[in-house]
Amino acid sequence: MLLKRASALGPHRRVGCRWLSSGSPRDEYDAVVVGGGHNGLVAAAYLANAGLNTAVLERRHIVGGAAVTEEIVAGYKFSRASYVLSLLRPQIFQDLELKKHGLKVHLRDPSSYTPIRSDLRQKDGPRSLTLGMCGKNNESEIGKFSEADGKNYAVYEQELENFVKAVDPLLDYAAIDLKSFSKASIFEKISLLKQNIHLIKAGRIVGPVAANFYELMTAPTTKILDKWFESEPLKATLATDSCIGAMISPDTPGSGYVLLGQRSTHKKRCRRSRRTAKVAPTGSFSPTGRRSGPSWYSQMLLRR
Ligand SMILES: Cc1cc2nc3c(=O)[nH]c(=O)nc-3n(C[C@H](O)[C@H](O)[C@H](O)COP(=O)(O)OP(=O)(O)OC[C@H]3O[C@@H](n4cnc5c(N)ncnc54)[C@H](O)[C@@H]3O)c2cc1C
Q1: 48 Cβ contact partners less than 8 Å away, ≥ 6 residues apart
Q2: Nearest atom (ligand 1) to Cα of 35
């Protein structure tokens, strides 16, 4: 992203671009965002809303990046890569007025269906594992494979949720500069901590279970799940959350962090919008210039 005044569009006129927003491309912008994936679009929206003349340059004919929804087969729209709207910050949802602009979030319930290959199934053994929003159903579904796991699952979920309560608010604040914090006077320290009360709250939650939290953030998911559960179908199902979009395996150290991120935001969204939803095709999240209105984008230029 270039934040200086930039002459962005001269060359693009020559190679032939079209623009989605109203008006013609200008010769100068305050900010030019290269790439119209959802992060670029969100950044551009905030810049434009702050009063900067902003252009988004996208090399494809469509915005959205990896979160795009496209008609690959005539009449059928697909999420080409990202398909679960899980990590969107609530503040962005509100600031960009995404609901007003038509974003509907649908609950993913059931959240997973894991079929068991017939050659791996025990005679008369369960054919599948389905998990969802209902704790009782989850317990009985998991109980088909292991009664102990069925009971442990609720406890596992509760522990993750506690960690979420600690970590989630931190994502919306700038991190404290520890170097200047250590040099600050006692009064400055107290004042800084008062401004960052979420850190104290996080410390209170994580403190008593710090060892478990540290393990979750650094260990491979397989190690964490092996401690909790014995059933392979359940562990395989839960492990998917630690690999999603991360190009890593559940054996990768640190994959537990992805597990926490995915699981936690899923759960939170469930609670926040139980009646509406948890998951939508992420493509519908990617705001376009037209849908988000002229106040958000100065200019959006896409390759023909
Ligand atoms: C297979 C897969 C599945 C995923 N599933 C999920 C999921 O279910 N839920 C979830 O929350 N996240 C998921 N993710 C992650 C998520 O898709 C990414 O975190 C997100 O798309 C990143 O957005 P971005 O805007 O930073 O980049 P991108 O989405 O990669 O967008 C970058 C944009 O920049 C454009 N561009 C690049 N170079 C130039 C250039 N030189 N000039 C002009 N334009 C340029 C590209 O065409 C693209 O449109 C998944 C990722 C993958 C790969």
Answers
A1: 54, 295, 296, 297, 298
A2: 34
**37 within ligand 1 shell (Cβ under 6 A):** yes
Is this model's pTM higher than 0.70 or not?
Answer: yes
Alpha-carbon torsion (136, 138, 142, 148), positive or negative: negative
Looking at residue 33, its pLDDT comes to 95
Rounded (5°) CA angle 6-12-14: 130
Does the structure show a pLDDT above 80 at 299? no
Ligand 1 atom having least distance to the Cα of 40: 25
Residue 3 CB–ligand 1 contact under 6 Å: no
CB 216 within 8 A of CB 237: no
Ligand 1 centre and the CA of 190: distance in Å?
A: 40
- Look at ligand 1, atom 35, and give the residue with the nearest C-alpha: 35
- 286 pocket-lining for ligand 1 (C-beta < 6 Å): no
Q: Is 105 in the pocket of ligand 1 (CB under 6 A)?
A: no
Which DSSP string corresponds to 222-251?
Answer: HHHHHHH---HHHHHHHHGGGTTTTT--TT
- Assign 271 to helix, strand or coil: helix
- Domains of the chain in start order, with CATH, are 10-66+285-303 (3.40.50), 112-272 (no CATH)
Q: How confident is the model at residue 238 (pLDDT cuts 50, 70, 90)?
A: very high
- Are β-strands 54-58 and 17-19 bridged in parallel, bridged antiparallel, or unpaired? unpaired
Taking only the tens place, the pLDDT of each residue in 198-233 is 888 888 888 888 888 888 889 999 999 999 999 999
**SS3 assignment, position 32:** strand
Specify the pLDDT at position 303. 57
What percent of the chain stands above pLDDT 70? 78
pLDDT at 20: 53
Interval between CA 267 and ligand 1 midpoint (Å): 23
